[in-house]
Specification:
The N and C termini lie far apart (111 Å). The protein is built from 15 helices and no strands. The chain has 358 residues and is an all-alpha fold.
Amino acid sequence: MKTTPPIAAPPALVDAPEPHPQAAKVRTPVSMPLPPAPSVVQDKTRPVGVARAVFGLLLVFCLTPWASPPLALILGLVLAQTVGNPFLAQTRKLTPTLLQYSVIGLGFGMNAHAAVQAGQEGVLFTVASIAGTLVLGYALGRWLGLGRHVTHLISCGTAICGGSAIAAVGPVLKAKEEEMSVALATVFVLNALALFAFPAIGHALAMTQNQFGLWCAIAIHDTSSVVGAATAYGDQALQVATTVKLARALWIIPVSVGTALLFKQKGVKIKVPYFILGFIGATLLNTYFPLLQADGALRAVGPVLVQLAKMGLTITLFFIGAGLSIQAVKAVGAKPFVLGAALWLCISAASLYVILHR
């Protein structure tokens, strides 16, 4: 009778060597919302319930008549630096959509004839400023020793429409997540500064509503900050700024195509800002449809939609501020901010001089 040989015991496990202390220091890129502010790492030691309560109270306040876009941005910034944003993923997802619907709603307070006139007036400024900003950005980026991708993203964001342009050009450029984060953080910090600085400068220089609206549309990056600053200045400034800025945003398409050719990228998909068509449709309805209706029903609904759009814009800026933390700003470094600030100051000063002396 055969006996089964005993099964050999498995060899003793050998303890794996401990990793080198430096191996744990891996820098995780800061993810960014598209078009709003960079993400922040939530402090696990902070009470989540308190953060949610504060967030809810501030959000409700932003829906009241006492709130304004600049104030909403300040409240969001304070929230981010104190208890933190407990709904960061949700606000990051909602911000672009909320901004687009808010812009469409503003169209119900626009006049098509005035919009066409403002668009024609700003077209030369748009072409000259976009081309000049891209060329100057390339030169400054090389001088600062920045990578081509980061330089191009910041230049496009400054030249066209901030985070929306970066979100559109980034995939075409096949940019890395950290490169997108750096560019977005740069333009969002400058957007926050512009939202407060521009109205003060406009009043100090006694700029007209038309002048200020045109200046905002050219020199401020994001549509949200453009509309916020123009709203604080006056209704006519808001009409001019919104129209010129959205006409400027259409340049995302040719600039994206040019980027694919310049960087020799193939098989990329160009993002089209379709919400601009919604704004145009709302403007046309507000201008012509009441003339076809004896009761003018749309004219009664229009002001309500415009008010809802302004509330949506206020909440958008609150969300943007709530995602912009000191940690995210520090993660960017000095050189991208130097590039972004230099481009912003150049386009702001040059456009202001032309507008005041034409």
